[in-house]
Amino acid sequence: MAIEIKVPALGESVTEATVGQWFKQPGDAVAVDEPLVELETDKVTVEVPAPSAGVLAAIKVPQGGTVAVGAVLGAIDSAPVQGAAPAAATAPAASPDKPAPAAATSPARPAPAQQPDPEPPARGDGAMPAAPAARKIMTEAGLTAAEVVGSGRRGQILKEDATAAVARREAAPPASAAAAERALPASVPVPAPQMRPPAGPNDAGREERVPMTRLRQTIARRLKDAQNTAAMLTTFNDVDMSAIMKLRGDYKELFEKRHQVKLGFMAFFVKACIQALKEVPAVNAEIDGQDIIYKNYYHIGVAVGTDRGLVVPVLREADRLSFAEIEQAIADFGRRARDGKLSIEDMQGGTFTISNGGVYGSLLSTPILNAPQSGILGMHRIEERAVVRNGQIVARPMMNLALSYDHRLVDGREAVTFLVRVKDYLEDPQRLVLEL
């Protein structure tokens, strides 16, 4: 009996994926729940398990193909395998007792969803109407569907597409300036657009061109959209890490013995940020059209670097977690991120993000917002510096902090207040325990 391998549900707002690596080839024996194929979505990599034991009969979508949720990826012949002989399993459709199911597994209906779409995204005036949030933004901005490029399934216009279109229009030169440019006399040279210079005769052979993964494309698009949409500004401060380092030194062995996880710095930063967010709620809010949505909950995203790109799993209800629970969750996120096991649900719904460039040696940076959030905290490396304490020059382990924020929503006074509160809590960590 032939059983179809279908694309599973990929999470909220995710409608399609790219087929990555097939772990099995036609004729290979498979066990139930054994990973068969890897799918790359805009956010995570998903492994599709075998729905039953048997022999992989067919691969209908090769590596690189684009598939929709529910599309057929291949088929498994679930008939008992005699001695696991691959040769006998290579042609399940010719089985004399079950010829019909093999022929009926894919009667050309799923084919459009299984094949990569060779055409560019539609402009939103096709079969798929714009998403409700996108329609609201377009109506408020006076945009028509023809002016927005849809990136959703069958060219559907999504919220981020409408937001990007508004940003592009606001960034465009005024009509008068464009008219003046057209009116320039022929003697006034207009600078030509900068093009990538051709590779030298000895350079082409040393270049390697590879397609961007869906995850990398999404990272690039979201970061650029955040720059185009938000009025980003960064404020800086530094923090004396002496108290936290002493606290960790005094209790790290007991902490690890009791909770089976190391006491790191991130739990202190998560706790400090939550306390500061409670005092400055604008940093935990977002803009939706003409409204401000204040989040009375604290889902803290923790940026994790992987060989596939940056991912941001979310600590949900982080204000209710203990130090040990935060460290355990972060350690688990790190393991699953490296193994490509994070789910889409793990990375949705964050209200504020913390990024630690210090693990790579960064001294200072200006992190980019994780839209639609209005704030992100950047941590950096700890280094001993000469500072003045009680009129004396002493060496202290100092860390630079950077808060990037959306100035449309967060005023400078609020941003500075937030960062000072974080500094205060970190330099006196007992206040975190007492929530003072």
Detailed description of the structure:
There is one protein chain. The protein has 436 residues and is an alpha+beta fold. It folds into three domains: 2-110, OB fold (Dihydrolipoamide Acetyltransferase, E2P), CATH 2.40.50.100; 121-170, Dihydrolipoamide Transferase (Irregular); 231-434, Chloramphenicol Acetyltransferase, CATH 3.30.559.10. The chain has twelve helices and 19 strands. Strands 9, 12, 15, 16, 17, 18 and 19 form a seven-stranded mixed beta sheet that branches. Strands 1-8-6-3 form a four-stranded antiparallel beta sheet, with no helix packed on it.
Looking at this protein, list some descriptive labels.
Dihydrolipoamide Transferase, OB fold (Dihydrolipoamide Acetyltransferase, E2P), Chloramphenicol Acetyltransferase, 436 residues, alpha+beta, 7-stranded mixed β-sheet, 3 domains, 12 helices
